[in-house]
Design brief:
With 343 residues, the protein is an alpha/beta fold. It is 26% helix and 26% strand. It has eight helices and 17 strands. Strands 7-11-6-1-4-5-12 form a seven-stranded parallel sheet. A five-stranded parallel sheet has the order 14-13-15-16-17. The longest helix is centred in the first third of the chain and has 17 residues. The radius of gyration is 22 Å and the shape is globular. 42% of the residues are buried.
Length: 343
């Protein structure tokens, strides 16, 4: 049964001397939720050479960080990191636990939630605190974590609650939450823990001898201008027009899942719930209908322009400007006039 006095904890990924952005985003959201619940925000990090980890974490309003430092914990392997979280969570019994929906979080989250019988909602797009009444028993619950995400192919937005089991666990993709320092001088408590008390020798049967990580050549998150195409673009050849337009504007080309599934563009350019979340200054959506899952990945763009032959396309409802027409007709004119006016 839940003991709802306990704290909110975030598993922080640590690579090349830096805490991952997604972890800092979750700390920002975690701080806001912890304040609402009147509880403390905690963090856990496991790895090697964690010398200034607290200086990176504390400014986000972290009250306590649990440090597990050992050369065997880096690079990440499933078993020791899982054992650390499972045994730590049994000990401190957090009310809520977050981690990034990264390759690490996708591996770690299900292992931990399964061992603790806690449940887990993956790829949340929103996290809130609210009350819940069980329709069968009539029992009322206060201050549950609302784990919100698109479901059924993006046709609905589902709110998922975990009334009784703890921790209430959720993963979130990078970029979905905003990263915001609470106070540069915020100071919390550091708890150094003995790795051997939380793991066993069998956890280290797998050793990473060498690894190579290819850096992404696409920088959607850092681009101030994104020209994105959907299924309405019509063909791989038509995407060349988007590329030309993006080059003129000094931006990047993005895509909806439908365009990626059609094979017109690579997956690393996919924007949305199953792709990247972006917040550019200008987002130009070409032939994108605007399914919930895509909108979840770009709705915080400063200015949204929709170019669509369908005047009733759902994306038009969130667009600042709507151009009704065929992309093949509209883009060449935009390119022409932009070049003319930018001389």
């Amino acid at each position: 049964m839940a003991t709802d006095k306990n704290n909110l904890i975030v598993y922080c990924e640590y690579e090349d001397g830096k805490v991952a952005d997604v972890s800092l985003e979750l700390l920002t959201k975690g701080r806001a939720l912890a304040d609402k619940l009147g509880i403390k925000l905690e963090a856990v990090v496991a790895g090697d050479n964690l010398k200034d980890i607290e200086n990176q974490i504390f400014p986000y309003g972290v009250d306590k960080v649990y440090k597990f430092e050992d050369k065997h914990l880096y690079p990440y392997t499933s078993l020791p990191h899982s054992s650390i979280l499972i045994n730590l969570f049994k000990e401190i019994q957090p009310q809520i636990a977050f981690m990034g929906a990264t390759s690490i979080g996708r591996d770690l989250g299900p292992r931990v939630s399964s061992a603790l019988h806690s449940g887990l909602t993956a790829d949340c797009t929103s996290l809130e605190i609210g009350d819940h009444k069980d329709p069968k028993t009539g029992k009322e619950y206060k201050n549950l974590l609302y784990q919100i995400r698109p479901a059924f192919g993006g046709n609905i937005v589902a709110t998922i609650v975990n009334p009784d089991n703890r921790p209430q666990m959720a993963t979130v993709r990078e970029g979905v939450m905003k990263k915001e320092i609470k106070n540069p001088d915020y100071k919390g408590e550091v708890v150094n823990l003995d790795v051997n008390k939380y793991t066993c020798p069998e956890d280290y049967v797998v050793e990473v001898i060498d690894r190579h990580i290819e850096k992404s050549k696409v920088n959607l998150k850092g681009s101030p201008v994104i020209v994105a195409g959907g299924y309405g673009v019509g063909s791989k050849e038509n995407f060349d027009l988007l590329t030309k337009f993006a080059d003129v504007l000094g931006g990047e080309v993005g895509a909806s899942r439908a365009a990626v599934d059609a094979g017109w563009v690579d997956h690393d350019r996919q924007i949305g719930q199953t792709g990247v979340t972006v917040r550019p200054k200008l987002y130009i959506a070409c032939g994108i209908s605007g399914q919930i899952q895509h909108i979840a990945g770009m709705q915080d763009s400063s200015i949204i322009i929709s170019i669509n032959s369908d005047p009733d396309a759902p994306i038009n409802a969130i667009a600042d400007y709507v151009i009704t027409g065929k992309m093949e007709d509209v883009l060449p004119k935009l390119i022409k006039y932009y070049k003319k006016n930018s001389k």
